[in-house]
Specification:
By secondary structure, the chain is α+β, with helices and mostly antiparallel strands. 23% of the residues lie in helices and 22% in strands. It is globular, with a radius of gyration of 19 Å. The structure holds ligand MTE and molybdenum atom.
Length: 334
């Protein structure tokens, strides 16, 4: 199955009524950010879809010290942030199902501690790293970024993370390392979407970046949002965030990072290469074969309906990243 085209989910999943109904469910078990920061994400919602899980609690406790020292990072937008409940309940995470509300329903069982990231390939410090050791002596930063999905909706999310470049430096890539390849966890017992034939995906979910893209100061490894550890449905405990690219590049729940010489295979361009390229830079001038990319629907909608805005070149980050692609034909390298 392909990523849904906008008409497939518009407007049924996004009418103010349905957002309101979902929100009621959410608010019934606590009140948004306040509940979340007082009790942590999952415990605050015990008895609801956001079931507590011991591994989540352990990870939150381990991260509490670093999260209390988050500093504002560079490049943050001052646009209105998308409310927490929308970020928690409108997700793409096919490991938990293809529906927008499947991840919030199904991701509560995912165990995120202990978590190991395997680093291999063209680098001098390969190994199996415990996530806490990777994050331990890093200064966490808040980055309020636009997230633009290829399906033509967008959010503004206050991530907490570390520049990916600072992680990469620890692994000491050698001169053969031209690309990075990333893999998501494969654990069908806790990820029901991996048992279902409907996605068509050859698991694990894979993504990749050119090394200069990976080292760019905008690229982060996110470990939190809204000041807390990452909710499971948003890619706990660690995910990539590449804000000038379509959302599918920002791979969730990473367990492997490989330094490679050749452009790696990636999930969506393997599934439908004519629709999803390796670069996947946000570009209003290059339409998806089945829909326009000129505009986007910013979540949440207003009382009168969806909020539609123009899509910006490189998702508004052209000043920072356009030089990475100088001389490249972006219609060919989409
Ligand atoms: N492993 C994995 N990562 C993934 C996806 C996925 O299905 N599996 N979906 C991608 C897509 S299409 C988008 S738009 C973003 C959504 O991130 P969010 O749910 O945190 O907003 O995650 C991306 N990362
Ligand atoms: Mo997406």
């Amino acid at each position: 199955m392909l990523i849904k085209k906008p008409e497939d989910f518009y407007p049924s999943e996004i009418t103010p009524e349905s957002v309101y109904l979902d929100r009621r469910k959410f608010i019934a078990s606590g009140s948004g950010v306040v509940a979340a920061s007082a009790f942590g994400w999952m415990p605050g919602f015990s008895g609801s879809a956001f079931a507590a899980n011991a591994s989540v609690n352990i990870w939150q406790q381990k991260m509490a010290g670093s999260l209390s020292k988050v500093k504002p990072g560079d490049f943050s937008t001052n646009e209105d942030k998308t409310p927490l409940e929308d970020i928690l309940q409108y997700n793409n995470f096919y490991e938990f199902g293809t529906g927008k509300s499947d991840p919030s329903k199904n991701a509560g069982k995912l165990e995120i501690h202990p978590w190991t990231v395997k680093v291999d390939g063209e680098c001098d410090k390969p190994g199996n790293y415990a996530l806490e050791d990777l994050v331990k002596d890093s200064q966490l930063e808040e980055r309020i970024y636009r997230l633009r999905c290829v399906e033509a909706w967008s959010m503004v999310i206050p991530w907490v993370g570390i520049p990916l470049a600072s992680l990469i430096k620890k692994f000491q890539p050698n001169s053969n390392a031209k690309y990075l390849a990333f893999e998501t966890l494969y654990r069908p017992e806790q990820m029901p979407g991996q048992k279902s034939p409907f996605s068509g995906i050859d698991w694990p979910y894979r993504e990749g970046l050119r090394i200069d893209e990976a080292m760019h100061p905008l690229t982060i490894a996110a470990v939190g949002l809204y000041g807390q550890t990452l909710p499971n449905q948003n890619g706990a405990p660690i995910r990539l965030v590449v804000p000038w690219k379509y959302g599918f590049k920002s791979i969730k729940s990473i367990v492997r990072i490989s330094f490679v010489e050749k452009m790696p295979h990636t999930t969506w361009s393997d599934l439908a290469p004519q629709e999803y390229g390796f670069y996947a830079n946000v570009n209003p001038n290059v339409d998806h074969p089945r829909w326009s990319q000129k505009r986007e629907r910013r979540l949440p909608g207003g009382f009168l309906g969806p909020k539609r805005i123009d899509t910006q070149m490189f998702n508004g980050y052209a000043d920072q990243v356009a030089s990475l692609y100088s001389g490249m034909d972006l219609k060919k390298y989409y």
